Structures are given as structure tokens and as C-alpha cells.
Amino acid sequence: AALEGAGLSVPPEEQAVDFLRTIQNTALQTGVNIQSSQRATTRTNDQFFLEQAQSVTVVANETNLVNFLHQLSANNALISLRDLVMRPDPPRQQLNASLKLVASYQKKSPVKTAPPAAPPAGAAAANRNANKP
Question: DSSP letter string over the chain?
Fold first, then answer.
């Protein structure tokens, strides 16, 4: 309820798109170039959250890469870094990095159906008395 109140609820059909859009926008803001990305995968990590995992390959200098990762973890999207592999690019001016980013999204809570309401105690007695001759 607290996440929904903060506006952090994302419909399940939009979670993968929202996740990739957040990564792309953050990369643009921090000067990180996304070279490629794989299709996001989804899994359940507990009874309240779904986990979206996205693998991306980026090229950036050290400062921009650190700023990118910091901004992803600082926003309200609950994004964290799961795997990171870095190596210098051939001219040794920037870093090539393979990242696996993970975002947690709130599951839709199942709709609870209320049990049938029992008639008030006085109504049951009135019905029994009404049926007596």
C-alpha cells in the first residue's frame, strides 16, 4: 500500500517496458552509451514482488558509469546491480561493461472475495418465530 501511495505501482503488462525505459533514460542523462540489451526476464522472488532482470552492454568512462549505477539505485524504481563485467575498450579510453540489472515490482494482490454475510442474530430468531403457528 505504501508503494502504491508513493506512485510506484506499475501494471504487470508495462513492467518490462518501464524497466528498460528507466535504464535508457538514466543512461542518456549520465552519458552512458547502451550498445545492446537482451530481452528482460521475469521471476517471482517472494509473495509480494516480481523481479525483472535486464542484461545490457554499455560503453562509458569511469565517472559516467559510476553515476549511471548510482542514479539507477537512487531512484524509486527499486533497481539493483546483480552482475558486472568490465574491460577497457581497445583504445583504452573507456570501459566496456556488461551489466545485469534487476528491478523489483509489486505483484498485483489477488482479489479477495468476502464470505457470505451471516444474517444478524436477531433476524434468525425472528425468522424461526415467524414460521411457528
Answer: -HHHHTT----GGGHHHHHHHHHHHHHHHHTPEEEEEPPPEEEE-SSSEEEEEEEEEEEE-HHHHHHHHHHHHHSTT-EEEEEEEEEE-TTSSSEEEEEEEEEEEEPPPPPPPPPPPPPPHHHHHHHHHHT--
Kindly report the length of the chain: 133
CB atoms near residue 83 (< 10 Å): 11
Radius of gyration of the chain (CA): 25
The pLDDT, as a whole number, for residue 84 is: 96
- Cell numbers placing 67: 553515476
Q: Cα–Cα distances in Å, from 90 out to 87, 94, 95?
A: 9, 9, 9
Type of residue at 28: L
Confidence category of residue 63, pLDDT binned at 50, 70, 90: very high
Q: Please return the burial class of 77, using the count of CB atoms within 10 Å of its CB with bins 0-12, 13-18 and 19+.
A: buried
* 98-112 pLDDT, tens digit each: 999 998 877 765 555
Cα separation, 44 vs 47, in Å, equals: 8
